[in-house]
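[step 3/7] inverse_fold.run input=structure_tokens len=265
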């Protein structure tokens, strides 16, 4: 039986409940194949796949024996997993069977308790809409002595983190981040000055250009901020993938470079 922790605070035990047997936790989100049939041609043309949401199903046992108290506990749990208007809300869920990751999920089907004289049970069905399991720690927090990262973690020994945590850049530099899972969009911070600066990885580029001050680049949302003001810069679909480096080039460079991301496992 797994211990489910919600929003880093509550477990099922706080509601007089426990996880039963037979959890269903998909390794991947739903896979949709994009194919097309061409007349008079055998088979199908393959246009790739799309990965959708991921739904977990957890059998839950309600351990409270008194019928009235049991109903109150289930009502309290219902209020916890819904918002002020009674709709399912997004909850951070950590499963003890996968101690190094968490998901952001919400209720996808109404629990229907099977009520008995001294107990009850139902299935908690939650959907991880983005289909991603996030590392508990940000890449720059993968350090020896961490109370979060331990030998139960799937992060490898020799993990170098993001490769750049306030790394001083004064010349063309190559950074080697450790990416454990799938491709991630980083959040980059350049603080200082530089001329004709280009950041490149896996054939994709960010044309930073010339800047002075603190430049923040949100690659996931294609947005950059210079000294807190939105700035337009040219960038490709910039993601970090396994076994690829980051190259920082330019002239008159004197800035600190920080690469932020959280592994998606």
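[step 3/7] decode complete -> sequence:
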């Amino acid at each position: 039986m797994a211990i489910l922790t919600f929003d880093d605070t509550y477990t099922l035990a706080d509601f007089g409940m426990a996880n039963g047997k037979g959890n269903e936790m998909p390794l991947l989100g739903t896979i949709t194949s994009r194919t097309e049939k061409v007349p008079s041609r055998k088979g199908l043309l393959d246009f790739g796949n799309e990965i959708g949401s991921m739904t977990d199903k957890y059998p839950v046992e309600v351990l409270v024996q008194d019928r009235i108290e049991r109903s109150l506990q289930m009502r309290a749990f219902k209020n916890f997993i819904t918002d002020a208007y009674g709709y399912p809300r997004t909850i951070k869920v950590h499963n003890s069977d996968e101690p190094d990751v968490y998901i952001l999920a919400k209720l996808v089907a109404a629990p229907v308790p099977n009520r008995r004289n001294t107990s009850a049970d139902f299935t908690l069905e939650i959907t991880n809409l983005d289909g991603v399991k996030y590392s508990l720690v940000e890449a720059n927090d993968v350090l020896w002595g961490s109370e979060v990262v331990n030998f139960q973690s799937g992060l490898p020994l020799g993990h170098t983190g993001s490769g750049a945590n306030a790394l001083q850049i004064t010349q063309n530099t190559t950074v080697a981040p450790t990416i454990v899972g799938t491709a991630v969009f980083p959040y980059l911070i350049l603080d200082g000055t530089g001329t004709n600066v280009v950041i490149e990885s896996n054939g994709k580029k960010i044309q930073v250009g010339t800047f002075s001050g603190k430049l923040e680049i949100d690659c996931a949302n294609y947005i950059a901020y210079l000294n807190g003001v939105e700035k337009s810069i040219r960038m490709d679909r910039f993601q970090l993938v396994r076994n690829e480096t980051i190259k920082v080039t330019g002239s008159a460079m004197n800035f600190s470079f920080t690469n932020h991301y959280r592994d998606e496992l």
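[step 4/7] annotate
The first helix runs from residue 67 to 81.
The radius of gyration is 24 Å.
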